[in-house]
Recover the amino acids of this structure.
């Protein structure tokens, strides 16, 4: 496993693979790792991304316009793994994984050197088959925990999770936020009572101040929309712009 959270906070960087194209995604990911990202979430573009805000929806559309597939995302991970030991997590909706087939997906992910996956719309209650398949391949199963989750549900999430737990600081769609909600800290506290796994806090982190604030109570900060937006706004200079953005975000860490 290459999922390590030594920096406080560590950065988990989300990239929609295939936006603007796969070759550029590869450059962006390697630049993000060089700039200090500990884990990369490889976003599989999906036609109906209900949990995502407009920034990631647009990125998904751009990636799908030239036919980016989950198989290509796994191949991209293989190329990254040859050059880096950073953590690699496939971040996908359930549909592309089911279309590929759970067994084929987990075998291909293991073969490519991927560390695990987060299936954003797979509820814990329906995850037994997936979890078994992933365990067989020694792949981490990352699940989302939300402030609205009951204690029983958090207990189930903690039991089913491996690698790390992704604490969502607010429910609703992804996007950047001005304020870091108090419920994030409270949720991490509740999770710590039930799990020894590292906890990454995501949904809405875009400034150095927010990044530093997360480090006071969680192991990692997940940054997604702000990175995808940086890619969108810097055509032909995506990798350089992302490296610069991450450098600023992590300044002093």
């Amino acid at each position: 496993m290459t999922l390590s959270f030594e920096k406080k906070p560590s950065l988990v960087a989300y990239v929609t693979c295939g936006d603007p194209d796969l070759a550029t995604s590869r450059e962006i990911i390697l630049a993000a790792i060089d700039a200090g990202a500990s884990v990369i979430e490889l976003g599989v573009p999906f036609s109906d991304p209900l949990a995502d805000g407009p920034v990631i929806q647009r990125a998904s559309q751009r990636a799908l316009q030239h036919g980016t597939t989950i198989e290509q995302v796994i191949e991209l991970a293989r190329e990254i793994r040859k050059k880096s030991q950073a953590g690699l997590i496939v971040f996908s909706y359930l549909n592309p994984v089911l279309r590929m087939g759970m067994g084929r997906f987990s075998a291909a992910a293991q073969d490519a050197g991927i560390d695990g996956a987060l299936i954003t719309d797979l509820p814990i209650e329906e995850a037994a088959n997936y979890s078994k398949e992933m365990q067989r391949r020694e792949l981490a199963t990352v699940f989302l925990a939300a402030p609205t989750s009951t204690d029983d549900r958090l207990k189930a999430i903690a039991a089913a999770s491996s690698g790390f737990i992704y604490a969502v600081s607010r429910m609703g769609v992804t996007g950047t936020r001005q304020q870091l909600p108090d419920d994030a800290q409270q949720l991490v506290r509740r999770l710590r009572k039930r799990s020894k796994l590292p906890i990454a806090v995501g949904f809405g982190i875009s400034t150095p101040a927010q990044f530093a604030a997360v480090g006071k109570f969680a192991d990692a900060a997940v940054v997604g929309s702000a990175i995808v937006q940086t890619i969108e706004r810097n055509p032909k200079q995506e990798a350089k712009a992302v490296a610069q953005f991450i450098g600023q975000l992590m300044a002093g860490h």
The longest strand covers residues 10-16.
